[in-house]
Design a protein that fits this description.
471 residues, alpha/beta, TIM Barrel, 3-stranded mixed beta sheet, 16 helices, 17 strands, globular, binds 6-O-phosphono-beta-D-glucopyranose
């Protein structure tokens, strides 16, 4: 394996001592055991039962990669691949089958085992509390639209801090909180599949409030770790420097990045966003004291998920006044000629985007401590890349990671406070409506039985990079 030998001989990109090398995952996508040991249903279990055709090849979340049963072996494999940290989430509906009330002791036992096993393997657990998986009973009362759900979430968060906070020192309140808003209330790719901008705004607002209230609770409990949020920051690039294109890209940035980034890090909403919401008549219901809580409980650490840029141009046509309100009323998406694509996922690959985000965080967000919490390449039909020994030769993934890491390295050289890089994901997993279409892992999983794992070439490459703290 030439690439690996080269890494050892000639390290050009050395990362700071203690850099976090690892990967990320989530509960619903890996655990399986969806109705085992008292777990309640979440929206994914329910939506799949109702509309299996909405999922690629009609594959649902019931079994996924069986991490629930195989976590020991998986964690050993992480160790073997040089992980010093790993992020996953806790399933709210496993902890509280109906979202609130009595905690499920079987869930506590499982998460204790996972956390202990990680620590034993010298892999730091980074634990996220919400990764798209609203308990069904809480969705029935409106999910993030309903303030009672914020209260239930804070109770759930406190329970997790109390039970696991002695060993978990990096907590995240949400992963990509804008995605359930977009998927559930604007663009029809998450349950409850509504198209309603007013609900989208309220759901987004309550999510931010829930994050601030969880941070407040964490501090009040006197916990001594760090608590943050994981955001998908998708830089908005204008088609040209024409003022109309630039304006369009700024508005897209306000809707899709700053809407969550500003309140999470600065404790306030962007004025530009508030102005649009006021003008269009979509301000959310805000209760007295909320803004104070948001102001005073910002994050200690920021996780950055980066996959693709957002290219934007000024609107070509007047919008249909009768169509549901969408952020796209203010801009059009722009398809740049000659862009580099990941054809399987349909996403542009633009490595410099990761650097632009980090510089923005450095210059405009107080250079807050951050890390790359997701980055990765989903490829369909990877079986065709298996060699005679059964190893998937995913050189494209190695190149993808390496090219992004070069930009992360440059950002570090320029003073960005970026502490680590986690690939999405450790092993191939079930990915919402895409199910098992695109594979992202360092490790493949035999999908006939969700059992045997086989390390891909990228997994061994990453091991060497992590062991040498560079490449
Ligand atoms: C991220 C999510 O946005 O993208 C993950 O945090 C998800 O949960 C990943 O699996 C890849 O998404 P997709 O749609 O390509 O499978």
């Amino acid at each position: 394996m030439k690439t690996i030998e080269k890494v050892v001989k000639d390290i050009q990109y050395r990362f700071p001592e203690g850099f976090w090398w690892g990967s990320s995952a989530s509960a619903a996508q890996t655990e399986g055991a969806a109705d085992v040991d008292g777990k309640g249903k979440n929206i994914w279990d329910y939506w799949y039962e109702k509309e299996p055709n909405r999922f690629f090849n009609r594959v649902g979340p019931q079994t996924t990669s069986q991490f629930y049963y195989r976590y020991k072996e998986d964690i050993q494999l992480m160790k073997e691949l040089g992980h010093n940290s790993f992020r996953t989430s806790i399933s709210w509906s496993r902890m509280f089958p109906s979202g609130k009330g009595e905690v499920n002791e079987k869930a506590v036992e499982f998460y204790n085992n996972v956390i202990n096993e990680l620590i034993e393997a010298e892999i730091e657990p980074f634990i996220n509390l919400f990764h798209f998986d609203m308990p069904l009973e809480l969705q029935k009362i409106g999910g993030w639209i309903n303030r009672e759900v914020v209260d239930a979430y804070v109770e759930y968060a406190k329970t997790c801090f109390r039970l696991f906070g002695d060993r978990v020192k990096k907590w995240f309140t949400h992963n990509e909180p804008i995605v359930p808003v977009e998927g559930g209330y604007l663009y029809d790719f998450h349950y409850p599949n509504e198209v309603d901008f007013r609900k989208a705004v309220q759901a987004g607002y309550h999510t931010i409030l829930s994050s601030a209230r969880a941070i407040k609770a964490y501090k009040e409990l006197g916990q001594d770790g760090k608590i943050g949020i994981i955001l998908n920051l998708t830089p908005s690039y204008p088609r040209s420097q024409h003022p109309a294109d630039v304006k369009a890209s700024k508005i897209a940035d306000v809707f899709f990045n700053r809407s969550f980034l500003d309140p999470s890090v600065k404790g306030e909403f962007p004025i530009e966003l508030v102005e649009i919401l006021k003008e269009e008549g979509y301000m959310p219901v805000i209760e007295e004291g909320d803004l104070e809580v948001i102001k005073n409980n910002t994050v200690d650490i920021l996780g950055i998920n980066y996959y693709q840029p957002r290219r934007v141009k000024a609107k070509e046509n007047l919008p249909n006044p009768e169509a549901p309100f969408m952020p796209e009323r203010y801009f059009d998406h722009y398809i740049m000629p000659g862009r580099k694509m990941n054809p399987y996922r349909g996403w542009e690959i633009y490595e410099k985007g990761i650097y632009d985000i980090l510089i923005n965080v450095k210059e405009n967000y107080g250079n807050i401590e951050c890390f790359i919490s997701e980055n990765g390449m989903g490829v369909e039909g990877e079986e065709r890349f298996r060699d005679e020994n059964g190893m998937i030769q995913d050189d494209y993934r190695i190149e993808f990671i390496r090219e992004h890491l070069k930009w992360v390295h440059k950002a570090i050289q320029e003073g960005c406070n970026v502490k680590g890089y986690h690939l999405w994901t450790f092993m191939d997993n079930w990915s919402w409506t895409n199910a098992y279409k695109n594979r992202y892992g360092f490790v493949s999983v035999n999908l006939d039985n969700n059992a045997e794992r086989m390390v891909k070439k990228s997994g061994y490459w990453f091991k060497v990079v992590s062991e040498h703290n560079g490449f």
